User: What shape does this take?
Amino acid sequence: VAGLGNYGLWGTRHSVGMAVLDQLARQLLVAEGWRADRRCCADVALAAAHGLELVLLKPRRLMNLNGLSVASAAEIYSFCPEDIYLVHDDLEKALGKVAIKLGGSARGHNGVRSCISALHSNEMTRLRVGIGRP
Assistant: This one.
């Protein structure tokens, strides 16, 4: 599960994917388990939920380059694109509304575009979190 955003710019609308992962880590009781993984240039936490082993990932790059971290982590942990969930902001959705999208285009989102390019696939599932327009 990759939370897309601009690393270090906490609290901004475009980093809502990382905020969602922080909340997920708290709920899975692994919030103290985040560690920097230089191999994929990301913060990583490992968790288990409903019999699944999860890798939570917050890329340590700007949004336009998040895909490089996601692709490196996919190689390290032997994931294929269909195993990856991207959590990211969506300007077209009202603030706080969420939707799941299975594959498809980036719809103008640079972080998703970066992931599609780096993974050579658009098969990732996406949790789109509405941030609304300013």
In short: The mean pLDDT is 95. The first helix runs from residue 16 to 27. DSSP finds three helices and seven strands in the chain. The first strand starts at residue 2 and ends at 3.
